[in-house]
């Protein structure tokens, strides 16, 4: 349930920037370009944020190897840095 709070809040913020930002651009020869840049900035920032946020919800964590297996690998393959456990 708490996942929805930041999703809605940040989406509302970037929607406000993307939809409301172009309304405040003063008249001039580059008004259309500036409005397009504001909208594209809001879309890209929101897309980047949502990809990073959703990626953190389900992180890719490698397999956890038991210490016994690590010691066996160390015994069979050796280790250039030295032993894992000091005697």
UniProtKB/TrEMBL annotation:
Under what name is this protein listed? Answer: V-type proton ATPase subunit
Concerning PANTHER family, the annotation shows: V-TYPE PROTON ATPASE SUBUNIT, VACUOLAR ATP SYNTHASE SUBUNIT H
The annotated subunit structure for this chain is: V-ATPase is a heteromultimeric enzyme made up of two complexes: the ATP-hydrolytic V1 complex and the proton translocation V0 complex.
**Compartment(s) of residence:** Endomembrane system; Membrane
What's the family?
Answer: Belongs to the V-ATPase e1/e2 subunit family.
Q: Name one GO molecular function term.
A: proton-transporting ATPase activity, rotational mechanism
Query: Which InterPro entries does the annotation name?
Result: ATPase_V0-cplx_e1/e2_su, ATPase_V0-cplx_e1/e2_su_met
What this protein is reported to do is described as: Subunit of the V0 complex of vacuolar(H+)-ATPase (V-ATPase), a multisubunit enzyme composed of a peripheral complex (V1) that hydrolyzes ATP and a membrane integral complex (V0) that translocates protons. V-ATPase is responsible for acidifying and maintaining the pH of intracellular compartments and in some cell types, is targeted to the plasma membrane, where it is responsible for acidifying the extracellular environment.
What is the protein's membrane topology class?
A: Multi-pass membrane protein
Q: Which organism is it from?
A: Panagrellus redivivus
Q: What Gene Ontology cellular-component terms does the record carry?
A: endomembrane system; plasma membrane proton-transporting V-type ATPase complex; proton-transporting V-type ATPase, V0 domain
Q: Which UniProt keywords apply?
A: Hydrogen ion transport, Ion transport, Membrane, Transmembrane, Transmembrane helix, Transport
Query: Where are the bilayer-spanning segments?
Result: 7-27, 33-54
One Pfam short name: ATP_synt_H
């Amino acid at each position: 349930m708490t996942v929805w709070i930041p999703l809605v809040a940040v989406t509302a913020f970037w929607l406000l920037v993307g939809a409301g930002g172009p309304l405040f651009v003063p008249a001039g020869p580059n008004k259309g370009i500036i409005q397009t840049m504001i909208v594209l900035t809001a879309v890209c920032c929101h897309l980047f944020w949502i990809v990073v946020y959703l990626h953190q919800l389900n992180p890719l964590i490698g397999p956890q190897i038991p210490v016994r297996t690590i010691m066996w690998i160390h015994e069979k393959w050796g280790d250039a840095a030295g032993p894992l456990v000091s005697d």
